[in-house]
Amino acid sequence: MKFGSASKLVTSLILLPAITIALTKEVSYNFKAMPHVHDKASFHNQVDFSISGRDFKLSQNETQIVLKISPDGSEVIKDFDSNGVASLAGRKLPVPPGPPSVTYSDGLGRLLKMTGGSKTTSDVYRLSNLTGFVHNASDKASAGWTSFVPADPRIGAVAYVAKYKVTGIQKIGQWQTYKINFTVKETSGKTKAWSDGTMWLCKGTGWPAKIIAHMHNVPFSDAPSPVSGTLTVARVS
Question: What is the rounded distance in angstroms from the CA atom of residue 204 to the CA atom of residue 221?
Fold first, then answer.
């Protein structure tokens, strides 16, 4: 599942009880997202970035609703944000709620397009891809895999390579999840961004239960230069 418009995701990490089962042998998995139409999930997102040497923090709630799900796992997701709180160098900034956005992704989780929202620019697509999940149904969970995604001139998304490895099955709150380490690196464009971290995806639906992403050299809103920092996502319902 493509996790919404990541340009709005912004980290107080919610610590949840967890039990991890290591994957020590080749096991099969099914990452095809199969929620149902009208299914809903809510998240708390937080970003801790450094902008021109100043600390920037943004905390925000997000709700996603499934508008359409196809047999191959492709999805249409509507996204709302609320309760945004931001600060730059300790000074509070206003964060009005943005208009809803709609995200379209294919059966492997690749971002196809986004509509609505306040600004759907090439930077929005780039930032979203840095926290996305692109699976390969032919691979085994313990082996890891690499996904090569080409640039999409229609939306301004640059080419990137993403590597994933399932390291365990872990319970996050009420959800059984796959624990997956990942790296995403842009391979085209003048200023290449990259991210690395861990995501915990709910078995059966593909919703993220938690994401911790360390992001480097990324485009962010109206910042004067690329920024680096940490994005944390925690599912709350």
Answer: 34
CA distance 181 to 165: 5
- Residue carrying structure tokens 């590597």: 163
DSSP notation for 55-77: EEEEEEEEEEEEEEE-TTS-EEE
Q: What does pTM read for this prediction?
A: 0.85
Q: What is the rounded (10 degree) CA torsion for 127, 133, 134, 135?
A: 170
Please provide the CATH number assigned to the domain covering 6-235.
2.30.230
Give the separation between CA 77 and CA 39, rounded to whole angstroms: 10
How far, in Å, are 11, 107, 157, 216, 231 from residue 210 at the CA level?
A: 11, 21, 25, 19, 10
pLDDT in tens, 63-109: 999 999 998 888 999 999 999 999 999 999 888 888 899 999 998 89
Q: Answer yes or no: are the C-beta atoms of 128 and 160 closer than 8 Å.
A: no
